[in-house]
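User: Predict the structure for this protein chain, please.
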Amino acid sequence: MGLRKIKVYHCFWIIALLVLILGFFTRDLANDTFDINIHDTYFIIAYNHTIVMVSLYYFLFGSCYWLLQKIVKKQLNRYLTLIHCIIFFGSFLAYWTVVFYSNLIAKKTLPTSENYELINQTLVVLFLFNVFIGLPIYLINLLIGVFSKNSTSR
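Assistant: Here is the predicted structure, written as structure tokens:
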């Protein structure tokens, strides 16, 4: 399969599998959690739940792209699709870069809460960026694709 044959939905499905593989094999899942502090309330979420949810998130994006392109036979806006992919794949790479970098720092020195704060803050910022910028671009792209008169000729 050449690079021309790889579609957007393939990329999202590959990222979903990578999230599962990297998430389950790089952490101690029995003890790992991340907590979100909102004012005076802490939300503590198990790391394995986060892995499954993020993986489902990417899988559903890929499935929606597949559904529109293969089943409904609608053509999506190429530029909006590219922007959406860059945002979501970039956030995936940014998060794992921060995780591996903070793990390297933690191995050289004593693990501190600052390393975990960096990971948590990065995860929250990327989540907000995806929700408020990436998701509206995706929804606009889907609406344009569904209501446009163009259909794929394949």
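The beta strands are 33-38, 41-46.
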